[in-house]
Design brief:
Elongation Factor Tu (Ef-tu), domain 3, SH3 type barrels, 6-stranded mixed beta sheet
Length: 170
């Protein structure tokens, strides 16, 4: 049985059902972005590492996931209700300016040493990721680009924004 080994292991979604009869899983993701480059992962309750054969994002609400070597609904029924987990070893492969969405969510946005909001989601509509945040209980959005983001401190859950930040707020 796979047990989350440390605090860096991440649950990135839950298997809620199947798509068709050919071994494709329906996943309710924490955020769809965590599945964009999914390669290897674990399923709660199973100790083996699985390989993603094909990942399709459906309307940013559901993920269609095909596991390599599992080609029939009978092969995947046992996974229903389980969590999809990325182990900490997978996270270490991220580049210097790459972040898992699950790590960003919950970070405080800091402008001039003052908390101005909290990141609640990251959306992607093609050109760039969009940060969704709450400021004074109002949901706002801003592109995740260097003109607006100065520094990200995942360890302390802080995202420092630039003076241009409010020019990008939608």
């Amino acid at each position: 049985m796979f047990v989350m080994k440390n605090e860096n292991d991440k649950k990135i979604g839950k298997i809620v059902n199947y798509f068709g009869l050919k071994g494709e899983l329906k996943i309710l993701p924490n955020t769809a972005n965590d599945f964009e480059n999914l390669d290897k992962f674990y399923i709660s309750g199973f100790n083996e590492e699985f390989n993603a054969e094909k990942v399709t994002i459906k309307d940013n609400r559901f993920i269609k996931l095909k596991i390599k070597g599992f080609d029939d609904i009978n092969d995947i029924e046992k996974f229903k209700g389980r969590d999809i987990i990325i182990a900490s070893e997978k996270e270490k492969q991220l580049g210097a300016d790459e972040y898992l969405t699950a790590d960003l969510i919950g970070c405080n946005l800091i402008y001039k040493n003052k908390v101005i909001g909290t990141l609640t989601d990251v959306e992607n509509f093609g050109a760039s990721d969009i940060f969704v945040f709450l400021e004074n209980n109002e949901e706002k959005r801003v592109p995740f680009v260097g003109d607006f983001i100065d520094k990200i401190d995942i360890k302390n859950k802080k995202i420092f924004v630039t003076e241009n930040f409010y020019n990008g707020v939608i």
